[in-house]
TrEMBL record:
Top-rank taxon, per record: Bacteria
Organism whose genome encodes this protein: Streptomyces alanosinicus
Gene3D superfamilies the record matches: 3.40.630.30
Taxonomic lineage from the root: Bacteria, Bacillati, Actinomycetota, Actinomycetes, Kitasatosporales
Any one Gene Ontology molecular-function term assigned to this protein's record: acyltransferase activity, transferring groups other than amino-acyl groups
Domain called N-acetyltransferase: residue spans: 1-136
Family annotation (InterPro entries): Acyl_CoA_acyltransferase, GNAT_dom
Protein name per the record: N-acetyltransferase domain-containing protein
Length: 160
C-alpha cells in the first residue's frame, strides 16, 4: 500500500475494503494532503488516464486513495481534500474526473457532486486482460460545458 494511505489509515491489510476485488491498481501521480498537528490526516491522489467512451478516445482525471484518519472522519476533511484535488484537476485538461468506490460510499460522493455511471466500465489488468470493474464508477465534470459522452466505457490502463 502507498505510504500516504498507510500514514493516515495505519497498515491494515485492506484499508479501502477493496482487496476482495483482486484488482491491481495504479499508484497516483499527484497527491493532495491535509495535515493536523504535523500529521497527515487526509489524502486524495490524481492522475490522467486514457479512456474510450463510446467511440471517443479521450482522457479523464482519475481520483483515488481518498483517505481520512479514523479519528478525524465526519468533519468535512474528505470534502476539503477532494475539492482541493479537483481544483487542480480543472487545470489538467480532461473534461471529467472519475473514481471507483464501494457501494456504501456512493451517497457520500453524490453529496460532493459526483454522479454514478450506469454503464459497465472495463479496465485493464496485468497481461493485457480486460475486466469489468466490480466497484461503482462515479464521475464529475471539471468544466461548465462538460457532457459525459454516451456509450461503453473502457479505461486504457489499470484502474486507480
Ligand atoms: C470515506 C472517507 C474518505 C470519508 O471521509 P470524511 O472526512 O469522513 O468525509 P466528510 O466528513 O468530508 O464527508 C463528506 C460529505 O459526505 C457526507 N456523508 C458522509 N457519509 C455519508 C453517507 N453515508 N451518505 C451520504 N452522505 C454522507 C457528509 O455529511 C459530508 O457532506 P457535507 O460536507 O455536505 O456535510 C473516510 O471515511 C475514510 O477514509 N474511510 C476509509 C477509507 C476509504 O474507504 N476510502 C474510500 C476509498 S474510495
Amino acid at each position: 500500500m502507498h505510504a500516504f494511505q498507510e500514514k493516515i489509515l495505519g497498515n491494515s491489510d485492506d484499508p479501502f475494503g477493496v482487496a476482495s476485488t483482486g484488482l491491481t491498481w495504479l499508484p497516483k501521480e499527484q497527491h493532495f494532503g491535509i495535515t493536523h498537528e504535523n500529521r497527515l490526516v487526509a489524502h486524495a491522489g490524481l492522475l490522467r488516464l486514457p479512456v474510450v467512451i463510446g467511440d471517443a478516445e479521450t482522457e479523464v482525471v482519475g481520483v483515488g486513495g481518498v483517505a481520512v484518519a479514523p479519528g478525524m472522519q465526519g468533519q468535512g476533511l474528505a470534502r476539503l481534500v477532494v475539492s482541493a484535488a479537483l481544483e487542480h484537476a480543472r487545470t489538467m485538461g480532461p473534461q471529467h474526473a472519475l473514481l471507483f468506490c464501494r457501494p456504501p460510499l456512493v451517497a457520500l460522493y453524490q453529496r460532493l457532486g459526483w454522479h454514478p455511471l450506469d454503464e459497465d466500465v472495463r479496465v485493464e489488468q496485468p497481461e493485457g486482460r480486460l475486466v469489468t470493474m466490480p466497484l461503482r464508477t462515479m464521475v464529475t465534470p471539471l468544466h461548465d460545458d462538460a457532457r459525459w459522452p454516451s456509450g461503453p466505457v473502457r479505461l486504457r490502463s489499470l484502474p486507480m
